Amino acid sequence: MSRTTDPPARYRVLVAIDYPAPEDVRHAAAGALERVRSWHHAEPGDVVDDIPERSAAWLLADGIIELAGGGE
Amino acid sequence: MAYYSGADVYALWLDGHDVRGSQQSLQASMEAVVDRRRALGSTSQAALTTGQTDGTLEMSGWLSSDTINYLSSLGTASVLLVQLAGNTGGALALAGASVLRSGQELSYEDDRAANYVPHLALDGRLRLANLACPYAARTTAGNTDASYVDLGSSSASGQIYLELGALTLGGYTSLTVTLRHSSDHVTFATHTTLAAMTAIGGQSVAYTASLNRYISVGWSWTGSGSGQSASFVVAVGRD
């Protein structure tokens, strides 16, 4: 089921982060991540488009990532 | 409801040295300095917080090789971390960023081991803290994101404590430990990078950047080598 055709948001990483693969987040329970098969790591300067949707808001608010815009 | 006793003390760290095995008592007190005033025309006192804290720390034990080898060096400031309630993430600890070994007493009796009482003077604040990760051996670079600790709320400032009890560099030049945090326990970001360690010891760093409620610990090695291993514990004391 696809609900949008918009490209995923791209973020520039300002502080090193680790996050689960998107499919792991989708399959996790509402609370803790019970089984994460693979973690992604990003260093400052990296541009990524697979940050979990639920994490992006607080990462932006805390200045850990910023919107990278298109064409990166 | 949990209750704790001396039997729950997992370790008594001073600069990466666990001296628990030769200590039999520990007494700590912490207080916020309060100024009591009664305003003119008032019938009751008001308690005014000054923002200052006081604390004392006393411990006593018996003379052994670890106390001789470590505690007897006077005039040295140590990072203190007492694992009061076991060795699990979030467990209660007592921590001091700078505890000066200021003196010592020895007493001998003919029918018992010699008593040894180190005198400890606090330089700064003594506080209760929570383990960000348990004391354990770690080898390849990694983190404890999958076993994060929930502090219950974020904090604007506080102190981070590291006790490195064993280190085999295996050719690497240093070990770097980081405190990590998250608002959603899904994505974790580096909060504070502690100074690189090359030998066992303690380290304490104050933080003033907001720390989110979920925390974990990361570690990495600089250089190249093999057979590396580090045993350490990290705690966070929030203001």
What this model shows, in words?
The complex is a heterodimer of chains A (72) and B (239). The radius of gyration of chain A is 13 Å and the shape is globular. The longest helix of chain A is centred in the C-terminal third of the chain and has 9 residues, at 53-61. Chain A has helices at 22-27, 53-61, and strands at residues 11-13, 17-20, 39-42, 47-48, 65-67. Chain A is α+β, with helices and mostly antiparallel strands. Chain B folds into 2 domains: 6-34 and 47-126; 131-238, Jelly Rolls (Sandwich). In chain B, strands 1, 2, 3, 4, 5, 6, 7, 8, 11, 14 and 16 form an 11-stranded antiparallel β-sheet that branches. In chain B, strands 9, 10, 12, 13 and 15 form a 5-stranded antiparallel β-sheet that branches. Helices cover 3% and strands 60% of the residues of chain B. The interface between A and B is medium-sized, with 20 and 16 residues.
Summarize the structure.
The complex is a heterodimer of chains A (72) and B (239). Chain A is α+β, with helices and mostly antiparallel strands and 72 residues long.
Sequence-ordered SSE layout with sheet pairings:
The complex is a heterodimer of chains A (72) and B (239).
Chain A: E1 11-13, E2 17-20, H1 22-27, E3 39-42, E4 47-48, H2 53-61, E5 65-67
Antiparallel strand pairs in A: 1-4, 1-5, 2-3
Chain B: E1 11-14, E2 17-18, E3 23-37, E4 46-62, H1 65-71, E5 77-83, E6 92-109, E7 112-122, E8 126-138, E9 142-143, E10 149-150, E11 158-168, E12 174-182, E13 188-193, E14 201-207, E15 214-222, E16 229-238
Antiparallel strand pairs in B: 1-2, 1-5, 3-4, 4-7, 5-6, 6-7, 6-8, 8-16, 9-15, 10-15, 11-14, 11-16, 12-13, 12-15
